[in-house]
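Consider the tokenized backbone below.
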């Protein structure tokens, strides 16, 4: 008998959920139903107790739901069908039959939330909701503000790490194959060694032949790659700043892709609506994606181009003798 549950947010929660759900996931894989990437089955990506069903047809989706229903009924676990939703991709003009779970219809919608991110029928994340910036903001502006590395850095690090792991083990089959590739590889080819050479050149590192003869240990290589990547992307930030208007007023920091920008770091840690609002507006003003009153007036003659804060401030200055002091201060603070 299970007499004690799992604490919300505990470290073991996700691992224990995976163990518990594993029978369901194995059954879905063995059924052959659901979506695939090439010959790799991906019918039910799962995080803890959050299972998403991916299928190329309504029949496959319903089949997977039936498998889940069978196992949850056997394990005496309840899933609320009214809280589950289905999003259809590329389904315009086609007749979609209803999906059911435990004899209840699952709501078919244009948008649903999965793992905190809204998924829609265009299969695009809503960037403005994630970080308060619209889609026309330059990518480098987003990376600089968030302090997040572009996926290109992760891929480059993986290539260079894998390369040095092979080089560091002479006499192995992998190292011999790598040596052979260096000798016979065509510079226009798309093999692994060409990708390594391009990545080494990109970060101003020496050629693969040099490192074959002079391999570095793990810590030396990690430190060297880290320095070179930091230098390269800092230069990229400065170069893009000269070209992109949304980067014009953003100060490039010493470590732009590993630390959140001061614009967001300056927001107080207190969890109140005012600080959150400041954290949303500051980056939009600095990236020139905030629509000011003067810009609205260009497209709508009914709109007063004068800044509303300017009007309120002068209203308080003119009327401060007659307005209660606390009221005037509240307006100025707003």
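A designed sequence for it:
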């Amino acid at each position: 008998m299970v007499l004690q549950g799992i604490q919300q947010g505990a470290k073991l929660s996700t691992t224990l959920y995976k163990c518990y759900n594993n029978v369901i996931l194995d059954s879905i894989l063995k059924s052959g139903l659901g979506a695939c990437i090439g010959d790799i089955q991906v019918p039910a990506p799962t995080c803890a107790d959050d299972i998403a069903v991916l299928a190329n047809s309504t029949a496959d989706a319903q089949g997977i739901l039936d498998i889940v229903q069978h196992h949850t009924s056997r394990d005496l676990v309840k899933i609320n069908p009214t809280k589950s939703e289905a999003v259809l991709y590329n389904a315009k003009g086609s007749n979609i039959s209803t999906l059911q779970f435990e004899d209840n219809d699952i709501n078919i919608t244009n948008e649903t939330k999965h793992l905190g991110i809204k998924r829609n029928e265009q299969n695009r994340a809503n960037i403005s909701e994630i970080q308060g910036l619209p889609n026309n903001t330059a990518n480098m502006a987003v990376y600089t503000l968030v302090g997040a590395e572009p996926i290109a850095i992760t891929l480059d690090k993986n290539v260079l790490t894998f390369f040095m792991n092979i080089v560091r083990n002479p006499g192995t089959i992998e190292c011999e194959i790598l040596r052979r590739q260096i000798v016979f590889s065509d510079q226009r080819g798309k093999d692994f060694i060409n990708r390594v050479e391009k990545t080494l050149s990109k970060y101003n590192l020496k050629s693969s032949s040099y490192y074959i003869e002079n391999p570095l240990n793990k810590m030396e290589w990690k430190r060297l790659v880290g320095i070179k990547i930091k230098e390269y992307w800092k230069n990229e930030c400065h170069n893009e700043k000269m070209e992109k208007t949304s980067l014009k007023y953003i100060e490039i920091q010493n470590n732009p892709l590993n630390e959140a920008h001061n614009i967001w770091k300056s927001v107080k840690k207190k969890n109140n609506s005012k600080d959150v609002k400041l954290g949303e507006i500051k980056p939009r003003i600095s990236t020139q994606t905030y629509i000011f009153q003067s810009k609205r007036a260009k497209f709508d003659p009914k709109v007063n181009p004068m800044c509303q804060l300017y009007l309120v401030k002068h209203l308080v200055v003119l009327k401060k003798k007659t307005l209660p002091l606390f009221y005037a201060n509240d307006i100025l603070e707003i």
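The longest helix spans residues 218-243.
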